[in-house]
Amino acid sequence: MKPYLGIVNYGCGNVNSLKSILSSLNFNCYESRSIKKLQAADLLILPGVGSYSHATKNLRISGLDKFLKKIYKKKPILGICLGMQLLASIGYEKGKNKGLNIIPGKVINLKRGKFNIGWNTLKCKKTNKVDKFKEFENKFFYFNHGYYYLTLEKYVYMKSSTGDYSIPAIIKKNNIIGVQFHPEKSQLNGKKFLKTIINELIYGK
Amino acid sequence: MENKRIIGTVIIKENWAVQSFGYKNYLPIGKPELVVENLNWWGADEILVIDTDSTKENSKPNYGMIEKIVSKNLSTPLIYSGGIHDKDQAKKIIGMGVERICLESLLYSNYLEVENISEAIGSQAVIISVPLIYENGKILYFNYINKKKYDLKDHNLHFLDSNLFSEILIIDKKNEGGNNTFDMRIQEKVLFKKKIIVFGGISRADKINRLLKKNRISAIAIGNSLNYSEISIQNIKKKIKINNFRKPFFNEYE
Hints:
heterodimer; A: alpha/beta; Rossmann fold; 8-stranded mixed sheet; 4-stranded mixed sheet; 7 helices; 14 strands; globular; B: alpha/beta; TIM Barrel; 8-stranded parallel barrel
């Protein structure tokens, strides 16, 4: 039986982009803000185009923050862009806001007025033991953010460079993966990435 | 170093993708969703859709057209411009499958709402469009609503360096639609601190290379000329001679 992917609709994000790409990859997926419906998913995806403050507020109001803080121990989660950043302990976009604290770290700005917008390559860390990520080394992915995730090196699996910065592009802790780029908008590389990582998270292969 | 981008641009008038000549004369090309689909296959770095009807006063975003475009399962980042007046509209458009929006008149008519939009969708998703004209040694700002031109010096644009948005789209209003007619003096004279995207009469590789070598230009938006031939994005990309650039990409038909 094909697994079900639940896209967490917390009112921020290009939910439809993700849904259509996942469907084109032959995944069963649905979007919902209902905790009951999301509990039934085999994998949860946190999408994201928005600001940290707005997103955390929406999660809090909907009660999805409490649900995600509990469920991550049992269910794999893929966080994309802002969805990845929400996994952090705290974020500083438009004020100081508490995140989900699933992968310890903080979300800070690149530099006042600076953004990382466009196509960049991924670099493997030497200590990276996840072979699945290695095939994406030096491949281009689409980034669009002004804030980045500062976390412990042990959680960083791939990095990307933008100007003076080397930023975490893929972070991982147990069965939780966060990606700073938008695989759903990274053309063929993005599709391959989603297919590989989703299978990795669900089946461990 | 940041990689520079080629943005495939589609101008919409009365629900048709058109070739535009200075936003005055138009020739129909085809259905917007099909033109956008081609740009997606050809590996554009981003796709910008500008609905000219929606820039009129009191108009709304063209949701019906956006829906048809996103139904094509695009895997290229999409930018939409036209008729966005408030936060709810911006959020709805992003939710539909658009990654970034472009604002223009709202900046002058309701700056507070620009703040609200930026708060809701993040400043990385907001681009500000500034139509300019070079005339008699001056840079003039063109207002689409009242069709008047203003000396850029007299027009208070200091807020264009605000953190509410990520990039500025400079349109060469006079030369838009021309064959390589973009006036280089425009990008030389404007001194915004933000990264800029340039658009209007840019078609040939020589000019694209000259523009992309400028530090503050992050992307080139190309419109009409992309419709003259197949795989035009790849053909343009092959001629780009800078290093910080994604090479042409050939998508597989599935």
